[in-house]
Amino acid sequence: MAAFGATVIRAGRRFLSSLPALFGVLVFTFLLMRVLPGDPAVFFASGPNAGKEEIEVIRKQMGLNKPVPEQLMLYLYDVGSGNLGRSMMTGQLVTKDLRERLPASLELTLTALLIALVSAVPLGVLAALRPGSIIDHGVRFFCALGVCVPTFVSGLLLIYVFYYLLGLAPDPTGRVDIFASLPPRRTGFLLIDFLLAGDFDGWWAAFRQLILPALSMALFVVAPLARITRASMLVSLGSDFVRTARSVGLPWWRVVVTYALRNAILPVITIAGIVFSTMLGANVLVEKVFSWPGVASYALDALLSSDYAPVQGFVLLMATVFVIVNLLVDILYGIADPRVTIG
Amino acid sequence: MGVTGSRRLLSAVAFVAFSLAAGSVQAQTRAETLRYVTGASVNTLEPNVPGSTREAFAVSLSTYDRLVSFGRKQLNGKWVFDLSKITGELAESYEVSPDGLKMTFRLRKDAKFQDGTPVTADDVKWSLDRVVTAPILGKAQLLTGSLTSADQFKVVDPLTIEVTLPKPDKLALPNLATVYPIIINSKVAKSHATAEDPWATAWLKENTAGSGAYRIETFKPGEQVIMVRNEAWNRGTTDKSASFKRVIVQSVPEPATRANLVERGDADIVVDLQASDVQSLEAKAKLKVISTPQYNSVTFVSMNNQIPPFDNVNVRRAVAFALPYDDMFKAALFGRGSPLFGATWADAKPSSGAYPIPQPVKLDLDKAREYLKAAGMPDGFSTTFSFNVGQASTAEPMAALVKESLAKIGIKVDIQKLPDAQMSTQINEKKLPFFTEGIVAWLPSPDYFYRNFYTGNQRWNYSSINNAELMEIAQKARFEPDAAKYEEDGRKLNAIHFTEMPQIPLWQPSQDAVMAASVEGYTYQFHRQVDYRDLNRK
């Protein structure tokens, strides 16, 4: 209990110390967007007759007619009061857009990470148990393949095979069949919302939509996870305590799972945390291919059209997610290795 | 045992029958639903909001009525909009006074807004006042039809509205059929107006208050719009409501996925596939492919006439004769469009006064070298050729060919691929020397093209040409009532265009509408989107 309390205090302290970094990210993104060439007002005033007057209207609407320091002050004030501005692209408040899209991205990324972990850890352990064997080479080959094939290629291939040729998968357009009705929004995670609403057909439909994009993302990150599992398993399998455990005649699974794996899992957790944050921001290609209404494709569209507010909001969101994931990794560390909390 | 057995059988039969019935109900609603997929997205329900997308225009055509609309005609066996045939939409009839200064519209007596209240002349006046007064997109559009002030719209009686013009402007009436002058339920809109926003634009962005053929059911900006039919609407060509009960407009960013969807029958119609996909779908002959040259648009290679070396007319001519037109047409568009090169003009005079017309240019490197010599640059020069990311699928192969071909006459070209916002900014600031862009005009008359795309120091004058004679003829032609004289003006303008060669028209790309075999009634519209009201299922 005391150990748990210590973890919470440490997590809180870590969170507070990351606030200046978040602030820095906020200001930096703000300035970066304004330094980039490309005037959003000109881009959005692209009706067939939009002239100087229209450009001025949009500039005023976006607050770009004021000097940059003033814009920054206004923006900081808005962010402080929970307003991230309005997107020109969707015409909605950025907070509303992000609130609707973040669960979609999180659901996809978490599922992909789960698939990746569930397949990568056993693969890594297997490879470590028989280094240099056929299994080891097989795992290495599979990992190399996963990393080499970009996610949009594997995504398009999966679509081609499972949707176009075999007709097994539903059409790859978003989180749920367009003709199906959505459950009442509680968490934003469709799999959870459908369960809460007791709609199992809906849950199955949403699951079917999710599985292909999650697979194509998982394929890409299996490699780092499996490799790191293998490497740290090799170290811990060769260590003294495993030799001792073997010599006292403990059953092999107990040696592997309880002693070796528990000690080997720390770096895997670290990598999983990093992989998760990267996936959340970098799954834009998967989101595009599967028309997934997530945050990454939203941010890319915004960036291409120089739509400042969504890009700034997205970067801030990602930074926050990164901080939270790091905290979570810290806490998991404490659970996996109680020695960590002492420090 | 016997009893339970038969009961089980009975329930099995009932279950099968039930699921069959459910299946057919589902199939029926699917048949009554139009699913349209697109790479773009709808961002507002009010087309006048600055920044609204073309998809938003298309939705507004179904949710709002205008006073009048364009008729349609057949062009090479395909239905296209007809600029010269203007029919009533909310107006039952209209008349234009003999001097062309007054237009009188009689409203339909049975026209009702979607909330059931009748459409009155007051609503029309409020809506038109709004378009010419509020800081919204329609203002600049209606300006091109001499509609500039609220004083021009007068309510005569509850069903009659009168529009007066300062000059007999040919484009005044067609302007009222464009996307922007929507007729809004003024009572509803006014109740949502605020002191800062007297025209309720913020509210109308997310809500509709119209009398159109469809009501909005779901609006998720950037994802999808679902519309259901307004049963009371009868402004279609046959005085009936629209054919499809439901319309789904869904954003699917990946073009290959869109092609799969329509091929598998999950989507009904799509107009923005890649040319290569269209070609393979056409070859399979399972779907209907209707390709219409976008006859109100042009793709150019533009040169900035104010920046050296392109300020020299001979340099521009040299480039015009050094472009590998046929290869570009094949590589960029797979030949899907109508070319604007390789024509022969009798006596070196323009073949017609229309715009655009095929130009007498072709790949002729010797001629190009001569022009370069005449320009005093026999050894060529270096420049950059820019295009935007959004057009990369057609512009990228084209740019490579331009670079290769111009290298043969000594012009060294660097290819520059710019994000869309950056490209439009640089065009607006007149900083790009050499680039490709396209234009489109909703009301494609020659004087309109020349006035908007060849005059003034403004963004759409891509070539930044500043030619006094061209400007004068174009301004005069706008109000020319005599058709023969107008044609003559058009010829003069086309002749100046060829002599000055400010930019090089390449082609009019095709609009490739790919649809399920059962979908009928597709018409190419001025806004280059699908008008969902046109369509029905056989």
Description:
Chain A is globular. Chain A contains 14 helices and no strands. Chain A is mostly helical. Chain A starts with a helix and ends in a 7-residue tail after the last helix. By secondary structure, chain B is α+β, with helices and mostly antiparallel strands. Chain B is 34% helix and 23% strand. Chain B is built from 17 helices and 20 strands. In chain B, the strands form six sheets. In chain B, strands 11, 12, 13, 14, 17 and 18 form a six-stranded antiparallel sheet that branches. A four-stranded mixed sheet of chain B has the order 1-10-9-8. In chain B, α15 crosses α16. The chains are: A mainly alpha (343), B alpha+beta (538).
List keywords for this structure.
heterodimer, A: 343 residues, mainly alpha, 14 helices, 75% helix, B: 538 residues, alpha+beta, six-stranded antiparallel sheet, 17 helices, 34% helix, globular
State the end-to-end distance of chain A.
16 Å
Structural class by sheet pairing and helices of chain B: alpha+beta
Largest sheet of chain B: 6 strands, antiparallel
Largest sheet of chain A: none
Oligomer: heterodimer
How much β-strand is present in the residues of chain B? 15-25%
Summing up helix and strand content along with how strands pair, one would put the structural category of chain A as: mainly alpha
Low-pLDDT residue intervals, each spanning 5 or more residues of chain B: 18-23
Please specify the SSE layout and strand pairing.
The complex is a heterodimer of chains A (343) and B (538).
Chain A: H1 2-35, H2 40-44, H3 52-61, H4 68-80, H5 94-129, H6 134-148, H7 151-165, H8 190-197, H9 200-237, H10 240-247, H11 252-282, H12 284-289, H13 295-304, H14 308-336
Chain B: H1 2-31, E1 33-38, H2 54-63, E2 68-75, E3 78-88, E4 91-96, E5 102-107, H3 121-133, H4 138-143, E6 153-157, E7 160-164, H5 172-175, H6 186-191, H7 201-206, E8 214-220, E9 224-229, E10 246-251, H8 255-263, E11 269-270, H9 275-284, E12 288-293, E13 297-303, H10 313-320, H11 325-333, E14 337-339, H12 365-374, E15 382-388, H13 392-407, E16 412-418, H14 420-428, E17 434-440, H15 446-453, H16 468-478, H17 483-500, E18 503-515, E19 519-520, E20 536-537
